[in-house]
């Protein structure tokens, strides 16, 4: 078929979950509550880290950056997902679909490297405590932060430009919750070999390099902690990185399940559920993990609430 005879698709239809009305309403309410809690929790962490002096450390600075990434991801996905649940699927313009895909991928790519940086930070704090303040300076942390944000949002442009140039002429229904690379490529009429090759060639460092840094960092951490003679010291050392290790495990488990492990045996429904884990569940659970298992954040939150209550009472006196 000649390219001149093709009917170019200018919008897609996002299918979402094909379920009955009662379950659809339940999921809408659930995702709405999760979105509000995730947004509030992550914003609270950002505010606390910015205003509380006891949280002005590299570890909490990177936690606040993680909260920014979580807000970007969940705000990029959930509002449109709620719209899909209400309308039983929605039309989305091609440019809007590509835009959603860009911000989603860029935020996730930045988060991959951010988690690696956070692991390195814990490695320096536990394995080289005497040099921690000289290595993890404020300037160095800011440079690392700028680097992983720029790297994430710039490298992903290669995928975006290539994907935007694809020709879509057949079915326009995306059987997914949002615009992701796999369902988009399945609808393309033009050759996608180059893009798929770039996914493995360029995408490999996004997975391999951060994973290697994380594994090596925690290997050295475990070895160092086990050498600590007192059980109290070992428990204190492990507690400083247990929250982050939980976050890393959840994030990378779902990423590997969806994008790295062969997807031939992965059903569409299971793929959607796994996608919910790292786009909705992870941004929701991250602030809960850090606040419940971190005494400094809990203390800062109580102090902030106390100051706010005191100012409120002073205002009405």
What would your notes on this structure say?
The chain has 317 residues and is mainly alpha-helical. It contains ten helices and three strands; from the N terminus they run E-H-H-E-H-H-H-E-H-H-H-H-H. Strands 2-1-3 form a three-stranded mixed beta sheet. Helix 1 runs antiparallel to helix 2 (58-87) and helix 2 (58-87) runs antiparallel to helix 9 (268-292). The chain is globular and about 65 Å long. The model is unreliable at 1-5 (pLDDT under 50).
Task: List key phrases describing it.
317 residues, mainly alpha, 77% helix
Please outline the helices and strands.
Layout: E1 11-14, H1 21-51, H2 58-87, E2 90-93, H3 94-127, H4 132-135, H5 138-164, E3 173-174, H6 181-187, H7 193-226, H8 231-260, H9 268-292, H10 295-316
Parallel strand pairs: 1-3
Antiparallel strand pairs: 1-2
Helix pairs in contact: 1-2, 1-9, 1-10, 2-3, 2-9, 3-5, 3-7, 3-8, 5-7, 7-8, 8-9
Helix coverage percent: over 70%
Query: If helices are DSSP runs of H or I spanning 4 or more residues, what is the number of helices?
Result: 10
State the total count of DSSP E strands: 3
**Would you list the SSEs in sequence order as H and E?**
EHHEHHHEHHHHH
